[in-house]
UniProtKB/TrEMBL annotation:
CDD domains: GMPK
CC per GO annotation: cytosol
Domain Guanylate kinase-like: 29-211
Protein name: Guanylate kinase
Enzyme class: transferase
Lineage: Eukaryota, Fungi, Fungi incertae sedis, Chytridiomycota, Chytridiomycota incertae sedis
Organism: Gonapodya prolifera (strain JEL478) (Monoblepharis prolifera)
Length: 227
């Protein structure tokens, strides 16, 4: 799609859940927030987790002002909105976190998180440090998991072997990762610091943490946290 101007599907202020029904995301199960340096293995771990426990987890669909890329589906990959509409959503306090990357704005709306909860699923947010700080300020009771690479050298190797970034993008990601690691080193910054050394071991630790918070994942029934 060449232009996103005027494309606002799924993204009006009302649809973003702003005081629509008076129900805030805080009244529901806390989201699970995964963060960590680019290349630390968040997507890999989440894919394994989602495959192992189908229908138990869901991503919220973010809003963005960037244009759709080939292969992306509006309102599935993202809600693509104009900069003006994005700003109106910010003004209406529709987002639990939002940030700007490379000149484009991205945000997680309360309504998008709500939609995952409404399906009885644990809502997973895969966000960066900026987003983590915003979600914390919201006081949603979110659970924060930091995925830590075994070392900077291994992180760099994984980023390079993934083969998806240019050299300058790799350098930018490595620089950003230092800030993420410094933040994560502060006591109480996250509820779990998960070293992604061996995938199966790390996944096991993640599952144990999730079950401690949300209850058992096995059994086929929806996972719902009682207040
Ligand atoms: N435990 C592991 N051992 C070896 N390789 C791993 C491990 N975990 C992930 N990888 C590899 O590291 C690379 C980066 O992983 P992944 O894409 O999941 O990172 P990410 O944290 O989601 O990055 P981004 O934030 O940029 O999306 C991938 O090629 C993945 O296969």
């Amino acid at each position: 799609m060449a232009s996103q101007a005027g494309h606002v599907a799924g993204a009006s202020v009302a649809d973003a859940g702003v005081a629509k029904d008076g129900v805030a995301a805080t009244e529901h199960k806390p989201p699970l927030v995964l963060s960590g340096p680019s290349g630390c293995g968040k997507s890999t771990l989440l894919k394994l987790l989602f495959d192992r426990y189908p229908n138990r987890f869901g991503f919220s669909v973010s809003h963005t002002t960037r244009s759709p890329r080939p292969g992306e589906t509006p309102d599935v990959s993202y809600h693509y909105v104009s900069p003006d509409l994005f700003q109106s959503l910010v003004d209406a306090d529709a987002f639990i976190e939002h940030a700007t990357f490379s000149g484009n704005r991205y945000g997680t709306s309360k309504a998008a998180v709500q939609r995952v909860f409404d399906k009885g699923r644990i809502c997973v947010l895969d966000i960066d440090l900026q987003g983590v700080k915003s979600v914390k300020e919201r006081g949603l009771g979110a659970k924060f998991v930091f995925v830590k690479p075994p070392s900077m050298e291994i992180l760099e190797t994984r980023l390079r072997s993934r083969g998806t970034e240019t050299e300058s993008a790799i350098q930018a990601r490595l620089a950003a990762s230092r800030a993420e690691l410094e933040y994560a080193a502060q006591p109480g910054a996250h509820d779990l610091v998960l070293v992604n050394d061996n995938l199966e071991r790390a996944l096991g630790e993640l599952v144990a943490f999730i079950e401690g918070v949300y209850g058992a994942l096995k059994g086929g029934e929806a996972v719902v946290l009682d207040d």
